[in-house]
């Protein structure tokens, strides 16, 4: 019986619990798109009704009360990088981590700076605690992170963040630049980041998954 339920769940295909504007959800959308994986989107509106991520129903899916979460192959995953690495390990083509261990290391540095050193500091629940100074706060920490990323990327970048192959680093970079632009960070200080973002944003997998054109994007924010 259990195995029949599992087979049914696997047959359903992946479901992404996300929010159009969430940069971490966008990372997962890009990974699915790059790998050509079909999935269903279920919106968890972070603002409406005091935040749908805070409901008991969603807490059962992700106890951290954050998006994204993904049900896939009969399991539920949270944490965008864990989700992307699971997809990478189970659906390896096209690869999102370079074959060369040194380049893999570089990819992970970029991902970690963004996912641990920048994004958590401008998360909604952090900004709600900061209150009136939230824009300056977010600008400060994005600038601080980008000041570290710029010289690293200057060394590692080719066409994309690490050489000429799209990787998880690119998947993390573009949504973070989107957030920076929302908080009006002066991107002219970061020419390498800006150049990479401009190149990547023209690629279909990044374009089609942009926050401005998701099923839950409000009409006034649609591209
Ligand atoms: N480390 C997590 C972070 C997830 C995260 O911060 N999600 C944000 C949206 S990008 C969220 O759900 N925030 C809800 C809140 O602040 O209440 C990941 O990579 O998935």
From TrEMBL:
The record's section on CDD domains has: GST_C_Zeta, GST_N_Zeta
User: Which reaction equation describes what this protein catalyses?
Assistant: 4-maleylacetoacetate = 4-fumarylacetoacetate; RX + glutathione = an S-substituted glutathione + a halide anion + H(+)
| Domain GST N-terminal: start-end pairs | 12-95
What are its GO biological-process terms? glutathione metabolic process; L-phenylalanine catabolic process; L-tyrosine catabolic process
- Which keywords describe this protein according to UniProt? Cytoplasm, Isomerase, Phenylalanine catabolism, Transferase, Tyrosine catabolism
One GO MF term: glutathione transferase activity
**GO CC term, one of those recorded:** mitochondrion
Give the pathway listed in the UniProt entry for this protein: Amino-acid degradation; L-phenylalanine degradation; acetoacetate and fumarate from L-phenylalanine: step 5/6
Q: Which InterPro entries match?
A: Glutathione-S-Trfase_C-like (IPR010987), Glutathione-S-Trfase_C_sf (IPR036282), Glutathione_S-Trfase (IPR040079), Glutathione_S-Trfase_N (IPR004045), GST_C (IPR004046), GST_Zeta (IPR005955), GST_Zeta_C (IPR034330), GST_Zeta_N (IPR034333)
Keyword Isomerase tagged: yes
Domain GST C-terminal: residue ranges: 100-219
**N-terminal signal peptide:** none
Where would you find this protein in the cell?
Cytoplasm
EC no. given is: 2.5.1.18, 5.2.1.2
**Does this entry carry the keyword Cytoplasm?**
yes
State its cofactor. glutathione
Family indicated by similarity: Belongs to the GST superfamily. Zeta family.
Name of the protein in its database record: Maleylacetoacetate isomerase
Q: Which organism is it from?
A: Sinocyclocheilus anshuiensis
The organism's taxonomy opens as:
Eukaryota, Metazoa, Chordata, Craniata, Vertebrata
């Amino acid at each position: 019986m259990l195995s029949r339920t599992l087979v049914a769940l696997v047959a359903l295909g992946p479901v992404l619990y996300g929010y159009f504007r969430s940069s971490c959800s966008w990372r997962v959308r890009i990974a699915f798109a790059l790998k050509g994986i079909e999935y269903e989107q279920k919106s968890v509106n972070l603002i409406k009704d005091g935040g749908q991520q805070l409901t008991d129903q969603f807490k059962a899916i992700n106890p951290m009360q954050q998006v994204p979460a993904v049900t896939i192959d009969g399991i539920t995953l949270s944490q965008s990088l864990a989700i992307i690495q699971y997809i990478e390990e189970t659906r390896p083509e096209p690869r999102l981590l370079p074959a060369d261990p040194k380049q893999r290391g570089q990819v992970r540095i970029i991902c970690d700076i963004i996912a641990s050193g920048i994004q958590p500091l401008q998360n909604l629940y952090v900004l709600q605690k900061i209150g009136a100074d939230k824009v300056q706060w977010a600008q400060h920490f994005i600038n601080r992170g980008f000041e570290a990323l710029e010289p690293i990327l200057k060394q590692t970048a080719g066409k994309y963040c690490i050489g000429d192959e799209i990787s998880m680093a690119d998947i993390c970079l573009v949504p973070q630049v989107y957030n920076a632009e929302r908080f009006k960070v002066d991107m002219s200080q970061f020419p390498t980041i800006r150049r990479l973002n401009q190149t990547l944003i023209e690629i279909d997998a990044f374009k089609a998954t942009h926050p401005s054109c998701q099923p839950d994007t409000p009409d006034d924010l649609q591209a």
